[in-house]
Amino acid sequence: MDTNTLYVADLVLKRGGKPVLHGVSLNIQAGAVTALLGANGAGKSSLVLAIAGAIELSSGDIKHKNQPLSGLRPEQIRKRGVAIVPEGHQVLSELSVLDNLRAAGSACSTRKLQSEIARVLDIFPELNAKLNTRGGDLSGGQKQMVSISQALIAAPQFLLIDELSLGLAPAVVKRLAEVVRQIAESGVGVLLIEQFTNIALGLAQHAYVMEHGRIVFSGSSQQLRDDPSILHSAYLA
Ligand SMILES: Nc1ncnc2c1ncn2[C@@H]1O[C@H](COP(=O)(O)OP(=O)(O)OP(=O)(O)O)[C@@H](O)[C@H]1O
Question: pTM for the whole thing?
Fold first, then answer.
């Protein structure tokens, strides 16, 4: 088993008694972006939440470095190097940006937390001027930067991003795409859910397409660009 890969195998999941994932398998490679595409309701968010331990699986395996992650609590999964940027650029709106970052690193020692905050501010230098601003007073793009920064604290090996650009202005989307590329180049494996398929396929080497709780395509981003009918049928399904 390759230690640079997060293995997800045969995930079965129900929500509200309804089957949502019907045996989903995928691999996320460290140091690369993997795109996860599919229409609303296909099960992408549920998959990411299940990998992060936020919702309970009926069955399936999630493994990294030969260790099972399935069945662990979210904070244990985080400690093992898998972090999530949930949908909707959520931040703690009453806390300052700096306190949002501190809260994300509450498991770190004070010294480690300082160096981690400095590291994420190197990635998003635009947050330096906002450290004392309340989370609730930020623009959507700034909130997404804080949300990604929170996930990056404690240097995860894998980062699962649920909707990078939803509702954000084109200039911000371009900036966030640049950062995702940089994060992957630094060695992190990024699973990217992104409504703009051209952005996702521009960043990703490998892509998966989901339809009604199943993976219906796994292959190179180039293949999906060359044959748009695969995506068209998934988005119309
Ligand atoms: N909290 C919930 N409780 C019960 N069912 C849910 C819940 N959230 C989502 N579902 C159902 O799970 C299925 C998959 O939804 P999910 O949000 O995972 O899809 P998605 O591909 O991420 O779509 P979207 O882009 O709309 O978030 C849908 O049928 C949805 O109705």
Answer: 0.95
